[in-house]
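#lab-general

N.A. 3:47 PM
ok so I finally got the sequence cleaned up, no stray characters, all 235 residues accounted for. can someone with queue access submit it? mine expired

B.Y. 3:52 PM
send it over

N.A. 3:53 PM
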Amino acid sequence: MPDKNIPDLSRIHAIAFDLDGTLVDSAADIWHALNFGLSQAGLPNVDLVTVRGWIGGGPDKLISRAIDHLGLAHSDGTLHARLRADFDRATLEAPLDHGMVYDGIEEMIEGLYAICPLVVVTNKPTPLARAVLAAAGLLPFMSAVYGGDRSELLKPSPAMLDAAAARLAVKPAQLLMVGDSAADLLAAQAAGCPVALVGWGYGAHASAPGVTPWPVGSPSQLLAQMSARFEEETE
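B.Y. 4:20 PM
back already:
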């Protein structure tokens, strides 16, 4: 991929990563957790391809889409609450039993950890995100995990990126957001963060009005270019 849209890496002092579709391919785990809840409620399962297209807005939006897809009434929210409880239970019991860490991510994270602070900013609720990161072996490398525990925090809101920048004592312009979706691009734009769009996730061709991301083709590319930036600084 061409680097014409690469940000000024000399200004980057920390990196925020999206989780699902960026660090891990967890679509099969999300599918399994959703279908566990549906089965517990005596409802039909949904196929993986359909569920994969619903990923990105957090489990509550996922469940609402499933209810709509099955032509069910939202009524008083009892069904939604039941499905969400079973979804969380299934995720915590098997955070990454069906999915995987993308190739090259472990090496990238370990290498970046040596040169700058790392955080995760995800629409997955924090307890679930931490469980997935622990199962992936990536949690020890993260300074913090920011999850979509309340609707107002969900990307494209800049709230979690703002909180991450404040915690790390960096300006938003010094925090690189790395993700795979339009929500990641828009959250970065709203926060004033530079943004990289990965080429291996669920939304490699994602776009957002007014946002020109840095296209990153592989984890090794991101590690190499960030490492070169810090090597130049220490020379």
